[in-house]
Amino acid sequence: MRFSEFEALAWQLWERVPETYKEGVDGLVIERDARPHPDFDEIYTLGECATETFPSAYGGPDTVRSAVVLYYGSFLRLARLDPSFDWEEELWETITHELKHHLEALAVEDALEDFDYAVDENFRRIEGEAFDPLYFRAGEPIGEGRYRVDRDTFIEVDPGTQSTWIEFEWGDRSFRIPRPDNTADITFVRINGGPDVEGDLFVVLIPRRSVWTSLRMAFSRSAPTVVQTEATAEPSSS
Asked: Which member of 4, 29, 227, 233 has the greatest number of CB atoms within 10 A?
């Protein structure tokens, strides 16, 4: 897609957004250049919400002003990497995502910033870089001990010590996986088979600890040990 076509489509989608969601947004800015990720190749920032807050005794759109910025070059790079890249879908998702940043700035919330942090840490894990092992908790909560980060799903489970199997639930069904041979403070188990979810499903094994043990880990100079492995899930008979 040429820049002129991209620009026209971006403005067309922008006009589809109800005005109430654009309160305090000064406009749409479309840049020709790409914005690569500072640490990872083939990862590009498609857009951002540039927000300024002006001190006032009153809240609302008069004190928080934003502009939504789109990077045509980033879309172009990703389209070249992925033959199935859907320009319109990705544009719409980027515009609405950045508007959520603005709305959360109005509400003085940081949930979306937490989610972006989780997405970034997820890339670090995938790329074999050092990462925050509890980053998934900053993702989108989808149930007790369940989180979604981008297209991946994480289920936090206490592995216990008594069984050769570790059980977890999804919907109204129970599944089990063999207990990993290796041990760690935190273990990411990529699940093969089992529940049908978008992206990858991970069972994250985090043993419940006594208050004393938790405090000792918190003040320890060494980072918690982290292991990544995979297992095939099967229906549980219990």
From this structure: 233
